């Protein structure tokens, strides 16, 4: 089976953590017998002189083709118009990559297109698939449906891509319901839970890291981009109700300056550690060293950070978003709290008092593996090709 994976959400040298779960899924799929995967990860680059901005300079310098951790990856650039051109992205993306796809398809024909994010990948896959006469599948991950699926200028393209796809995937049952509510055919959507490297993400002694950070009390961690949707400000506002606890914010983003100011205003700036975007390979030791992972997101699909934390034996406190209730079916794994500082503090204090066994917490996500994830994905593609 020859698969063309189209993924704007995919790591590279400039952003090694960006979409790493797509990379892990693709690598597990490519390792299966009888499967050949070519990755095209289009890179959005604005016209000069914006292309020289530090945000885009490293992206523009990426090689157009490389072997990335064992995967064959092409990185063609397409025109990006910041702030004003998001509704043009699918067509600009498709126009930029079609010559490459036609050439690759002529050399060794593909059987289907695998779009790994709903926007702009899904509508672009529809255009490419129509050009080559190939079926395509689209995977929904959360924000791609909740934002792009409702934004006036992009909703129609998202819906059309979903309705014309040969198959659809959703990372949670709740997200599948959201897709159906948007107008997509429910019988075409399969729930496809994420995977987790159970060997790397596992309980371990975190005393050395705690000593390095100067933490001798409860250690909280929040893994996610520092953006409004993740609502880390609620955890900072909860800190005055959690005496002695220190919070590690493992992420970077536009809200960082505001969060620093908020911590200083509340007098807890000496209890908030801005760790930045941690290398994914280093994340297990941070999660395992923590007492609770807190992520009060407004919207999610089914966050990889939730699963990875539980695999490390660290319970989680999250809010009602995406597949939260599908994951937290055992109280030992943590709790779903209202998006309010006092509610988060109560949930965190409950876990700190209970001190759940790390092995019991880990058992709650034993079913999440990249091998299972790849097998289900392979079966999904086989149905489409058949």
Question: What structural class is derived from the secondary structure elements?
Answer: alpha/beta
CATH architecture of the largest domain: 3-Layer(aba) Sandwich
Radius of gyration: 21 Å
Strand content: 15-25%
Task: Output the CATH homologous superfamily of the largest domain.
Answer: Glycogen Phosphorylase B
The CATH topology label of the largest domain is Rossmann fold
Write up this protein.
- The protein is an alpha/beta fold.
- It has 2 domains: 2-195 and 369-385, Rossmann fold, CATH 3.40.50.2000; 207-363, Rossmann fold (3-Layer(aba) Sandwich), CATH 3.40.50.2000.
- It is built from 16 helices and 16 strands.
- It has helices at residues 20-30, 54-60, 89-107, 121-132, 143-146, 155-164, 173-182, 207-213, 233-238, 256-265, 283-289, 304-311, 324-327, 341-354, 358-363, 370-385, and strands spanning 2-6, 36-40, 43-45, 65-68, 71-74, 77-79, 112-115, 136-140, 167-170, 189-191, 219-223, 246-250, 272-274, 292-295, 316-318, 334-336.
- An 8-stranded mixed sheet has the order 4-5-2-1-7-8-9-10, with helices on both faces.
- The mean pLDDT is 95.
Q: What brief labels describe this structure?
A:
six-stranded parallel β-sheet, 2 domains, Rossmann fold, alpha/beta
Short description:
By secondary structure, the protein is of the alpha/beta class.
Give the secondary structure arrangement, pairings included.
Blueprint: E1 2-6, H1 20-30, E2 36-40, E3 43-45, H2 54-60, E4 65-68, E5 71-74, E6 77-79, H3 89-107, E7 112-115, H4 121-132, E8 136-140, H5 143-146, H6 155-164, E9 167-170, H7 173-182, E10 189-191, H8 207-213, E11 219-223, H9 233-238, E12 246-250, H10 256-265, E13 272-274, H11 283-289, E14 292-295, H12 304-311, E15 316-318, H13 324-327, E16 334-336, H14 341-354, H15 358-363, H16 370-385
Parallel strand pairs: 1-2, 1-7, 2-5, 3-6, 7-8, 8-9, 9-10, 11-12, 11-14, 12-13, 14-15, 15-16
Antiparallel strand pairs: 4-5
Helix pairs in contact: 1-16, 3-4, 4-6
């Amino acid at each position: 089976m020859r698969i063309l994976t189209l993924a704007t959400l995919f790591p590279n040298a400039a952003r090694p953590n960006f979409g790493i779960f797509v990379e892990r899924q693709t690598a597990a799929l490519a390792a299966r017998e009888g499967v050949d995967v070519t990755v095209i990860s289009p890179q959005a680059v604005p016209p000069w002189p914006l292309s020289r901005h530090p945000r885009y300079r490293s992206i523009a310098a990426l090689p157009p083709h490389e072997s990335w951790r064992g995967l064959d990856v092409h990185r063609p650039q397409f025109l990006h118009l910041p702030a004003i051109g998001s509704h043009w992205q699918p067509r600009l993306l498709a126009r930029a990559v079609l010559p490459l796809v036609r050439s690759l398809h002529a050399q060794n024909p593909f059987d289907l297109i695998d779009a790994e994010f709903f926007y702009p990948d899904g509508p672009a896959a529809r255009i490419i698939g129509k050009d080559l006469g190939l079926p395509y599948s689209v995977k929904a991950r959360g924000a791609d449906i909740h934002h792009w699926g409702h934004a006036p200028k992009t909703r129609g393209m998202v819906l059309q891509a979903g309705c014309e796809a040969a198959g659809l995937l959703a990372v949670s049952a709740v997200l599948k319901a959201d897709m159906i509510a948007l107008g997509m055919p429910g019988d075409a959507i399969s729930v496809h839970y994420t995977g987790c490297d159970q060997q790397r993400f596992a309980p371990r002694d975190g005393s050395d890291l705690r000593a390095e950070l100067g933490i001798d009390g409860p250690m909280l961690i929040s893994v996610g981009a520092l953006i409004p949707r993740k609502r880390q400000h609620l955890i900072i506002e909860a800190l005055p109700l959690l005496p002695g606890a220190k919070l590690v914010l493992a992420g970077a983003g536009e809200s960082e300056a505001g969060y620093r100011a908020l911590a200083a205003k509340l007098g807890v700036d000496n209890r908030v550690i801005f760790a930045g975007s941690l290398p994914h390979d280093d994340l297990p030791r941070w999660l395992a060293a923590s007492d609770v992972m807190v992520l009060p997101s407004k919207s999610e699909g089914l966050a990889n950070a939730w699963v990875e934390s539980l695999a490390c034996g660290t319970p989680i406190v999250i809010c009602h978003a995406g597949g939260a209730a599908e994951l937290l079916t055992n109280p030992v794994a943590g709790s779903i709290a209202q998006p309010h500082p006092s509610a988060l503090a109560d949930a965190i204090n409950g876990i700190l008092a209970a001190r759940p066994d790390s092995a019991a917490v880990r058992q709650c996500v034993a079913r999440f593996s990249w091998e299972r994830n790849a097998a289900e994905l392979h079966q999904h593609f086989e149905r489409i090709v058949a």
